[in-house]
Structure prediction request, 470 residues.
Amino acid sequence: MDSTAQRAPRPTGRTVAYDPSVPAPPLHVRAAAVLEAGWTGTSTVPSRGLYPHQWSWDSAFITIGLRHVSPLRAQTELETLLAAQWADGRIPHIVFNPSVPLDAYFPSPDFWRSSAAGRAAGAPRTVQTSGIVQPPVHALAAWLVHLADPGLSRARGFLVRAYPRLAAWHRYLLHRRDLGGGGLVSVVHPWEQGMDNSPCWDRPLSRVTPAPARSFRRADLDHGSPEDRPTDLDYGRYVRLASDYRDRGYTDGPGDFAVEDPAFNALLIASEHALARIARELGAAVPARQDRAERLTAALVERLWEPSAGMFLCRDVRAGEMIPERGVSGLVPLLLPNLPHDHAATLVRTVCGPHFGLGGTTRLVPSYDLLGDAFDPHRYWRGPAWFNTNWLLERGLRLHGERGRADALRRGILHTAGASDFAEYVDPHTGQACGATGFGWTAALTLDLLHDRPAWDRNGVTAIKGEVRG
Prediction:
């Protein structure tokens, strides 16, 4: 029976002895069903309609939850992504499924032309990809997937095969993308940072001449309200940046857009700690990776910490100045174990203060400053709350001893994920669903938070810290 069908009114004056209403399945069953629906046999799509291919950081977050359902599928997910790695070490932000029609998503493979335009950078010939990257969550995900079933991981040689690819990925970022010369990684496109439409990008994007509207067709508007998505002007600038990068053969350099972003670099540091754990598991040297993570943390504090804002800010490399916008990206370094205590304490005050409102005016941490001129509770990354950033902040709060706040945020994430049907993002005040529903990383991270909390504390936190356990 269709659960949405209307029932006839019950007769009055009678006692109902049996109510045939079927209770909703448990949250973990619903979340697992979302991941099952998105499974292609080798990877998981973020959303069948809106995002029908494999996305880089989506897959990393998805595997963190998928490991509780099937460690084998989680390993396969990461292996599929790593198989599309370029020879220069970059992991592309999209791996295209050849069975999906070209017009189902834009920019499609014929826009990126990876095997031709990326030939000098070592793009694979047997699979089509994009040419830009996304945040490096992958080593952290690989370690957590290994911990889900170490016996299976060792039997399959999962880490043995993944480690050199992950190491090459980090080398690419550290050697090719230090465009500001201060030791941090720069992104060369808003899509690389993952928070595509953040107001943090408005100033550097203003230098970019948009591609003509007639030169592309936005497939995203077929699946979402225009009021929730980037404007045509912003999208035209995204297309221009991507096409210029493609036409340069995907060579890295300080083009029209180069930004040092705190979340991107914090996730690289977290993954460096995880690579140290993987190295120890494989009997390789560890100190160099731990030292690198500590140096990167120091560079992050030196270059991107802004005391007057009480958080980290982005740096516009081309203009040589900080970007005075408070985005959730500037809170993500809270997940770093070696962050100075006073910086961590300040970040906690900021996330709970008037600019982000956690524990007061908001259910989940918004993606942008509640008091900012550009705040919009429904438009893509300009105010709505996202589940992956809130998962990272829950982890950071717990890591730095804020157990009560972490528990409250965890409850908020789980309630909102279930009530919104695992929405892509939500209004931070009301929890109203925005974007796609049945979204991959929302379901996956729900599963992770539902899993055994004490085990998550032991394994998840120490995966970042790089501590040694027997």
Notes: Residues 422 and 442 are 5 Å apart (CA to CA). The chain has a mean pLDDT of 90.
